[in-house]
Design brief:
Helix content is 59%, strand content 0%. The protein is built from two helices and no strands. The chain starts with 22 loop residues before the first helix and ends with a helix.
């Protein structure tokens, strides 16, 4: 449960809120995410995006300067 203390004045910034999660639950969630098809697509998309940027970069670098 988040711990909060209301600010004592209008000018004082709000305090940080602390959240605690179970490590085994977090690890299970990470394992499920990594085994999902969506995660595989994200990795594939990242490779495709990098290829596109590398192509643009090499074209830009190959252009003769003014």
């Amino acid at each position: 449960m988040p711990l909060r203390k209301p600010p004592s004045s209008e000018t004082e910034p709000p305090l940080n809120v602390e959240s605690r999660y179970s490590l085994p639950a977090l690890l299970r969630e990470v394992k499920q995410d990594r085994s999902s098809a969506a995660f595989a697509m994200e990795k594939l998309d990242q490779v495709s995006i990098n290829v596109l940027f590398d192509q643009k970069r090499s074209l830009r670098d190959a252009k003769p300067g003014p």
